[in-house]
């Protein structure tokens, strides 16, 4: 059994208001982005490696894809102000709002993902988790959680696997080339779009996001990903949260499974069916086109107290255009007034 070692909180919180309303993700209406799009290689290469022929290119892909996916979730769930994002064309069919590195928040997010890159390069990162707590004051009371789970060659075949709550493998994925990887990515982003904008109930006002990392058992004792700090307490997901698998990504060198657990899901089975119908209207899911080959899943993971916390800045920063105060406490962004 692999010990679950944790790097904790990269908090991105601000008090949410009902006035914020934006469409954080779009698909071109004249494409087949919903389902299995054709990837524009030139546009794709502006965000991701044009091909995956080495471990380093695979690492770059997964780090950037996590950045895009987490940015999209933060925008879709209205957890950060909309001026922290910019629109980006991902593959010619799919456009998403990602965090703008020209802003204070975007620059700090990008800085922290450099630490994520190192942890993946060293094969230390097991899970990258976007956690949403009920309030900024109570980061251990978790109401929503998006988990980006990595697999490596030392796990055996580095297949991306969707697991049930008990660790049983539901489906495993193998690498089929860059075009197929592009389709997997588009399907994942469309799934996130549909989930966040259409199927999840709104988060309560005051909900606060932060980023947490869990480590593999190969990680040296005391290691902290750059920019992350120990956090003493484990986040506790509320017992009424329901779980939905969201997608798989696979290269020759890494595999990733993505899932969500949330109290904003009324019925997990209904959400799964809606995602299948809306994202893959012909029932031709990339996950279901597999031959059903399943590898051995990891044993159930239990958290330890080796948590860390991210502090983004040593000083407070005032952004007068939207009246945001960024505090020294782990990327806490508190909206002080509405305009």
TrEMBL record:
| GO cellular component terms listed in the entry, alphabetical order | chromosome; nucleus
Q: Where is this region: Disordered?
A: 285-307
Q: Which UniProt keywords apply?
A: Chromosome, Meiosis, Nucleus
Is Nucleus among the key words of this record? Answer: yes
- Coiled-coil annotated residue ranges, if any: none
Q: What is its main location?
A: nucleus
Q: InterPro entries under this entry?
A: HORMA_dom, HORMA_dom_sf, HORMA_MeioticProgression
The record, for Pfam families, names: HORMA (PF02301)
Q: Which residues cross the membrane?
A: none
One annotated GO biological process: meiotic cell cycle
Could you tell me where this protein is found in the cell? Answer: Chromosome; Nucleus
Does Membrane count among this protein's keywords?
Answer: no
PROSITE patterns given for it? HORMA (PS50815)
**Where does the HORMA domain lie?**
56-260
- This chain's protein is named HORMA domain-containing protein
- Species of origin reads Parelaphostrongylus tenuis (Meningeal worm)
